Amino acid sequence: MKLVVQVKLLPTPEQAAALEATLRGCNQAADLVARTAFTTGITREYDLRKHTYTVLKARGLGAQAAQHVIKKVADACTTLKANLRAGNLGPPGSRRRTRAESRPITFRPHAAQPYDDRCLSWQPHARTVSIWTIAGRLRAIAFTCSKRQLAMLVAHRKGESDLVSRDGMWFLIATCDLPEVPLTAPNGFTGVDLGIVNIATTGDGLRHSGKGLNAVRHRHRELRRRLQAKATKSAQRLLKKRRRAEARFAANTNHVIAKRIVTEAERTGRGIALEDLQGIRERVRLRKPQRVTLHSWSFAQLGGFIAYKARRAGIALIHVDPACTSRQCSACGHTDRANRPEQAVFSCTSCGFAEHADVNAARNIAARGVAGWAVSHAA
Ligand SMILES: [Zn+2]
Fold first, then answer.
1. CB 113 within 8 A of CB 61
2. What is the predicted pLDDT for the residue at 296?
3. Most-buried pick from 265, 316, 321, 340 (CB within 10 A)?
4. Judging by beta carbons within 10 Å of its beta carbon (0-12, 13-18, 19+), is residue 149 exposed, middle or buried?
């Protein structure tokens, strides 16, 4: 399975200037190739190379960089065609579609540039890289990353890495190819209930409260509103920076939650049962302010993180239908709206079983996981 590791480069001012010139140069070159593709109608990598390779070399791009630029443009053309075909840019004649069709593809000055092992080499133990730039090869650019990331780079880094610049910082995003871990036969399932008051709750009562998170998100939203009111360029820039910071915060939170859930499943030898995420918006009906929070919380991302962490650990994962999991009694199966008198309280009107509402729901999800697994693995 493929994973990416992002490391932060610590270039000297001179090195940073060379990287800057390189990224700009490569993306200007990509614009040029895209113009050729547009005017000639040639979009295949091989044919584009025939038309543009010499020009790119003459502009100071190395052989590998030139090929990567051409491939980047060819890939962008393929993506655009697929999007047009799928109707993602609207029906023929629509403004968006016409705009996309009537001009060449352009690249941001800081769009990511791929590097292979011939133009980028890693010295993980020294925490340095040597990288091709327009100003010549830069040796021993320092980078920083966690111990775990370093171990991953040493053991599994393979193939291309992307050079990326964000908010004045430089990053390399390296691809790692991990061997598949054989699936362990699950000894029961841990159910995970997703929601707003508690982002995630397991049947064992492991709860990730949304309270602190939602407070932070409200603060972010307030700040964003104030910035949006100002139309200045610096406010726009700040806004962009805030958005990224928020996305990082959410991703980091999701990583932490996913890790705890997967570690718990690993420790107990169980599989993980997740609710089918498509149902979550219909299922949760709340007052408006909370609805906004839910829609903007990335449960899909959390589900994705749990899935890949589970796969990496060889843990079984199953998605179940979440219908009525919050109203059904996990002890006797009795389903009734009255079983849940309050947001946090589950109290069965039939057998008297009482539990935190989210824990009860998580246990129902676990039971459905066991049943679903038995069905799909009967043969
Ligand atoms: Zn009951």
1. no
2. 56
3. 265
4. middle
